[in-house]
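Troubleshooting: if your tokenizer reports a length mismatch, compare your output against this known-good record of 341 residues.
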Amino acid sequence: MVSTVAASPNDARGLRNRLNRIRHYDVNVSNLERSIAWYQATTGIKPIMRTSADQGFPSLGLAHGRFEGCMLQDPDQGGKFPMIHLVEWKDPKPVGTPYRSHANVGWYRIVPEVTDLAEARERCIANGSTPFAPSVDAMVKFHRHVDAHRYRVFTVHDPDGIAVEFSQPEARLRQPVVPIVVAHNTADVAGHMPFYTDTLGLDFMQGLQVGEPMPNVYSPGGGMVGHDGALMGLRGDVKVMFDWLQWNDTPDLPHPYAEPNHLGIMRCAFEVDDLDAAHATLLRSSWYKAGKIKVAAPEDWDLGAEAGSIRVVNFTDPEGVGFQLVQQPPYPNATLNAYGL
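Known-good structure output:
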């Protein structure tokens, strides 16, 4: 029988129809308990499950590795809201320091929303983190064709030096969410945008070209900054976004972290409906065929008694920025068919 279902235009957009949600972001820390306490006290996210692993990680270049971790989640959001996965590597031990410049290519800052920016600033200071600069409270246009909106932010380092930017949204818009964004940077917006729209299949939501330089509240360097970039979303989801930027002031920081145990934000993990099909899609992409992205073979990761086992594919964007696909678990009641039998 010939199918009467017309082909979807989205079928040509790479992983678009496979990506179901952002599952989590992996964040390497040096002291797990200290970081859990800091993120709870300042952002309000809560631990929901512990993780642990003691195995080989071929896709990370580790014949054997061991870590302890914890998944934290926004308690005020329903459903499977993206988690922050804090990871303390035990073997090999953590190395390096997180990016010191807001312009470094790679995952740079976690952005929680708060209901009261001044109160959030006081909480951060009380928990040992000094804001980089005075809080911004200004009407800002992020694109010449988009109306200005009230922009209220400040940024601090977490206990390991990872940038965390606190933002207060307009009360009329929505309940604050954590994270609203985990932002990452590029050195070539124009050249790499097709990877994000056509291979990952993300929705382009808005350009982010500031008309005038802005105060640098994003890293300790101070001064004025500007950027090009885009807000992108996952198949119609406007609640959690990708804030992807090319900064105009520091063009000489093109390399993400090389070591899998480097302190900092390492990767974004998507949940997919069919890991093998998604893996095959990446291998068919022009980016992979040209050797511009790395795509590892599927692996099974045993994350311990609470988190269980997950099946993953690790890959990078054209600049080496880390991503992961995770096979979604089966529905617990899927053995009951639609007719009650």
